[in-house]
Structure formats: structure tokens, C-alpha cells
Amino acid sequence: MTGADFSTLNLTDVTVKLEEDGILIVTLNRSRKLNMFSERMSSELLRVFQLGDQDDRVRVIILTADPAAPAFCAGADMDEIVNGSALLGRKEDKEHEHRDPGGQVAMAIYNNRKITISAINGHASGTGITALQIPFDIRFIWAGAKLAFPFIRLGIVPESTSTYLLSRLIGESNASYVLLTGDGVKPDSPIISTLYHKTFPNRTDVLPAAIALAKNLASGTGQVSMAYTKGLLHRPGASVEENHLLESRAMKLIGTSKDTVEGAQSFMQRRPPKFRDTLSEHASSWFPWWSPLDVKHPKSKL
Amino acid sequence: MTGADFSTLNLTDVTVKLEEDGILIVTLNRSRKLNMFSERMSSELLRVFQLGDQDDRVRVIILTADPAAPAFCAGADMDEIVNGSALLGRKEDKEHEHRDPGGQVAMAIYNNRKITISAINGHASGTGITALQIPFDIRFIWAGAKLAFPFIRLGIVPESTSTYLLSRLIGESNASYVLLTGDGVKPDSPIISTLYHKTFPNRTDVLPAAIALAKNLASGTGQVSMAYTKGLLHRPGASVEENHLLESRAMKLIGTSKDTVEGAQSFMQRRPPKFRDTLSEHASSWFPWWSPLDVKHPKSKL
Amino acid sequence: MTGADFSTLNLTDVTVKLEEDGILIVTLNRSRKLNMFSERMSSELLRVFQLGDQDDRVRVIILTADPAAPAFCAGADMDEIVNGSALLGRKEDKEHEHRDPGGQVAMAIYNNRKITISAINGHASGTGITALQIPFDIRFIWAGAKLAFPFIRLGIVPESTSTYLLSRLIGESNASYVLLTGDGVKPDSPIISTLYHKTFPNRTDVLPAAIALAKNLASGTGQVSMAYTKGLLHRPGASVEENHLLESRAMKLIGTSKDTVEGAQSFMQRRPPKFRDTLSEHASSWFPWWSPLDVKHPKSKL
């Protein structure tokens, strides 16, 4: 599917640019407000990541900020929270009706079929980590970034599905420490360092490195292969046996595609591959193999 | 609920002291027997952690030992085991009737709604790690501690729910190595180092550092916020979607509390918060949201 | 059960030798083809690991290669794949009928009741990591080994149950990076280093170190204790409560064995233990406590 014209989207808290090589760069655009996570920012990010997922032209999505901004993202907008925004739940919502906006964004990123990179070129706090870093596939960061998890210090709870994801990503020992103490950390702290794949001494180096990797992946990997591999990593089945059945079926499905033939041929001929299959053309009634829980319905029994 | 008078509990293998600032300090008191884990110690720890969970005055629970003792805990009491204690299962119990005393203690710690800190100021072995370190939220340790996992060398199996928890805390690669080889390790070994959040060169430095963090958490975090955050970390749901619903509901429930208002106000006013909500006052029929498996019944089908 | 005569098995792509002390050494034997994973190699490894599991004489299984070979294993045999082998699924198989040969081998290793060690003394790629390293209990490696995860670069998906196991072993943050970028890494890279328990500067040092550990484990650990401990680590139950019931029952079952008596006595007498219980003699209708999913049936609904 060739999707929306990203350049004509009516956005204010983020800007979006689709590069010719299939790289969608999303930039936080509230630097005067420390790029704080607003209700509007959440709905704009949700829309952009959903469009990026559906648009066959998009192969990699990068989130970043202006490296000259005072912060990558200083957390949820406290002014909005005090004024009763949906960030902590609107007054009129019943107990079971609230849907955390950070979690909505986090799921749109984690469930994205395109590879996602967070290029963190400034300080970050709260939702600026839980929604804007943790759900991504790859995280590049400025070595000087101050990172804070203040939830427990504010009398609230961590959100944006971080209480599910962080333990999986870096282990429950470290996840418990940062979420239960609220301590500030730096990217090279052993408590958090496995969250970050590359660290850069200068703020201005983070995005170029992310773009270089993105270009490499956009030209060197297949769209269907990436989507299936992400699916297998995120929904691996409940045992090695279930996983074996899922991997086997994914391999058989993809094994008849043009991309697999091209992958083998380019390998034998020692040349770069040209993958052309798209998710739209290669639709399968089997993928996704899991039944996503419908979280939209406010009458969910959870 | 204002609970028991900890000072009048009839305890011998541990001592307990509730500090004014809500810190409950539990000290192993069998140094003449290397603080070995006895049946009596297990029932005393079980009682103390359950009371600490229920008592609204308690905000942090620290476990430690006399730093002059020959060991933090040298494992299960082998004399008792040879004499047929419940530690490995009494002779008269049928196959499905045994309940591992270390596991009972471990669950009382892991499921505790108050934050728990293990201040390990001596050598530790077996149950001294599986029950008295692994189920805690935070672990501070003496750098010189010798750590041993001897189960596989004794012809038995690891216990105290360590076969569930250790892989989650530090990854299955490292957990498999220490539990399947029984090798001794030091706290700075890459095999085990992510289990420990801070390491101290002197045995006498461990408890003071734990108390300093405890004071900071007791005054700077909310009781309900801590309980919900621990619940989310330990029972995050089976997918990002389920987790999103749980986090959303926890946030909505807590978002109307006095603590959340105080958290936002103190943040805006740049002053330390004064959290006053208690778990007793803030009871909710929704929390805990999971149905704990009843492990007491000896006729369990497991 | 005293099993097959390993020396008379009709094998070509691997060689097998059962040492007197219960150590089964399996050596990849395709060095002229870079030890590439062939369909034949997969069926030979499957058979050898299944026999090793069932044979009471076997206590430890080591997989290795000739340290002079150009690679430990250079991945799946691309010639076979291009010629339509079962490695990616045969043409005539329907979508749900393929069973990944690497996954079959991986499950035979991961589910093995004997402790397994991979002694990686050369470069490795693809299936040479996913099937021949990841499912093992312990991994020793040559520091100079080049490691590559090329699946995403070939338009296919990772296999051999690596999308289930790798996140569990080293955390999803690192697993996602290596599987989604396909980047090459060295054993000391923080991205992958927790996968390896010991690293050696010389290729020829890897196997002797693995054999030394194997001898130590073969003489110092019980066969039933090892099998139950591996079972608990791999199938720990869905919560601490379920795990507590499983550990309790395993401890009670094993607690009446001769090995447990010997373990306690040798400990008290400060002498090495002599464990003699075997899995055949110590069969229990309870172990394994999980119902393995039958993956052989091609009509599986997954």
C-alpha cells in the first residue's frame, strides 16, 4: 500500500519526513516545552507510526529530536496533567475506561512491522524513556544523556507498557532497580547500559549514525523478512515447541518468495541483494499468527 | 492497618526492629551456626515479612546479618536435613504434599507490597542466595562475598523459586551456568554481577548504604504507588496489550489519590513530596488483579 | 538404559566418541565444507543427542569441531538450499507441513536431560549459532571467533528456536539487535557476551576446558538432579506459585533418592560424592511434568 502524503499531514508536536530510500524520520517538535509528551504529541505519534507501518514505501522509522533542544523529552507534560488531560486518566472516565496514551504509542511502535530506531540525542525522563525509547527495536544514545524514571517519586506508576517490556529487554533485576527507586542513571551505568546499542560522545552524532544504519537496513533487508522476524521475536510462542512450529511456518511461507530467491542468489554471487517484496503483495492469512487483544473497547473485562 | 508490636514477637533465629521512619530491619541471628537457614528461621522470616506487608507503618524491609558473623548465610542447615526436617520434605509427606520452606519465604518476599532490600554483608550459599537474596527488589553486597550454588553438587535441586526467578532477573544464560555447574562466584563475576545493584569493599558499609536508600525511598515514594508498581513488574500480563490494560487501570485508580495530587504539586513547587496514602485506606477490589494460586492446599493437582 | 554402541553408528557429517567417564564428544566432520549445516548433519545430530539423552552412561554431551577447520560452522549449506533441501522447506510441502531441521536439533539439545556444552573453536554463522550454540546449557568460545546472524540479510527468518531462546538467554534488547540487524559481532561484544561463559585466546584451548568442566560435572553431579534442575529451569511454571509447587515436588521426589543421601553424607564427611542413581532406575510418572507439544504431526493447528 502506498500510503498518505506524510508532507501534508497536519502535525504540530512532531515533524515527519519520508526519505527516498524508505526511511521515515520523525522529529519531536516541542523544544520550547522540553519536548514534553503531550496528549497531542501522543495522538500524532500514534498516527505517524500507524501510517509508517502500513505504507509499503517505509522500511525504517527513526524517532529523534533537535540535538540543540534542552531535552530529547522531559517526560509527560505536567501542566496538562494538572489541567486534567488524558495522560493520567480523565475525571469522567470510569475505573476501567482509561487507556494510557503512552501505552497506545508504545504498542504502535512495538507492534510496528518496520524496524524502528530511537536516536536519543538529549536528556530524557519518564514517558521520554518508557514510550519513546523502550518499545523500539534499536536505541542509539548520546553518552551525556541524563535518564530519570520518576514515576515512583510522583505517586504514580510506570506506563507505556514499560512494566512489561523493560524486564524482557534488560532483565528484571535492573528493571526493578530503576523503576522502584526512580534513581537517575547515565547510559553507561551497568543498571541500564544493555538498553542501548551504541553510545556517542556528541549529541550531533546520534542521528547520523541512526540514519547510516537505517540506510544499510533499508537496502539490505527484506520487508517481509523483517516483519516476520519481529513477529517471531515479540510473539515467540509459549515454549520451544510452539516456537518451532511458528518459525517453521514463517520459513516455509517466506521460503517461496522472490526475496528468498534473491537472498540466496545475491549471497552466492557475492553482491548486495535487491529485495522487492512488500507486505501488501505478500499478505498471508496466517500473519499475524496471534490474535491481538482488542484494547480499544472500554468494556474490556481486564 | 497498624500491625503487631515487632519488639514483642517471640523470635530466636532472627531479630527485628521497626525504625520510626518506616524501615523494618530484619537481622539473621544464628551467627554461631553460620546463619544457616533452619526450619525455625524460615517460619520466623515468613511471619515477619507477612507482618511487614500488612503493617501500614512499614515502607521498606531490609534483611541483613551481623557483619562480624562468619557468613551472611551458609545455606540450609545440614544437621536439620540429616535429621529429617521439612527442608527437603518430611518422610511422612506424600509426593505432592511437601512445600519447600525456602519457597514459602521467597514468595512472602517477592509478593511483598513494600520494597525489600537484601544487604548481603558476608559469604552466602544455597538458600542463603535463593531465598535470602534473589526474591528481593534490591541487592547490595560486600565485594568480598563468596557465593555458591551447591544444589547440583548435593544431588538435589535448586529451590526457593530460584528456578523461576533467577532467569528472569539475570537471563537464562547466566542462570543456567550457576545453577547447573554449582560453581562458586564472586559478586563482580560477569556471570552474576547483574544480580547486584551496588557493591561495597567493606562488610560494614553494606547495611548503612541500604538504610540510606531505604530512608530516601520511605520518605520519597508512595505506599500505594510502590505496591502497584511492584505488582505490575511481577504480574505484567501476557502481552503488551494485556499490560496496557493493567497499567491503564492502575494509573486511573491511583490517579485520583491524594498521593498523586501531592506528587504533582511537590514536583511543580520543587519541594520534597509528603505521601500519606496507605494500602489499608486505598484498598481496591481490583488489586491484586491476579488470582494467586493457592499453594497451601496439599491436594493441589500440581 | 544402556544404549547404542556409539562407535558403530553410521555417521558421516559428525563423529561421536563416548569417553569412559560418561562424556559424549560430538565433533562436526565437514571441515572441507566449512562444517556447514546439511540436512544429513541435522539428522545425525538429532539421532546422537536423542541417544545421549536416553543412554544412562552419558552424563555430559559436548559439541565441538576440529580447531584447524576453517570454521566451527559456516551456517546452513547454501548449495543444498538452492537445490531444494528441507532446510527452508521442500517445494512439495504445504504451508503447515514444514518442520525446520535446525529447530528439531535445537529441541533435542535444549530438552536433553544431560548437561550440554558447546565448545566453539572457530567462526560461526547462522545455524552454526542458532542450532549449534544457543540451545546448549554452557558455551565456551574462542575469543577470535567471528559471529554472524545473516538471516535478515538473506530474506529469510531466524530459526532453530532462536527467536524464542535468544531473548530468554541474553535479554530481548540484545537479541533484537543481532537478529534484526544481522551485524557481525565478536564474543566480547557487550551485545552478545552474556551468551558465552568462558572465552579463550587460542582455538585449541576451548575443547580441553570444556572437557575439564565436563569431567568435573560427570563425577560431581547426579544424573537425576541434573535432569530435574534442567527441567525446572526450562519449564519453571507460569508464576512463583506454580514454580514453588514444581520445585517442592521435585525436591520431595529426589529427596528420598540414594543420591541425596550420598550428597548430604559426602558434604558432612568433606569428601567428593559418588552419585550412582540413573534416570532409568529413577523414572517417575510425574517427570516430565509438562506435556510436550507434539510437533511431529504435520496437521498441527499452529
From TrEMBL, chains A, B, C:
It holds the Pfam family ECH_1. Transmembrane segments: none annotated. InterPro entries: ClpP/crotonase-like_dom_sf, ECH/Chromodomain_protein, Enoyl-CoA_hydra/iso, Enoyl-CoA_hydra_C. Signal peptide: none annotated. Belongs to the enoyl-CoA hydratase/isomerase family. This is Uncharacterized protein. It comes from Collybiopsis confluens.
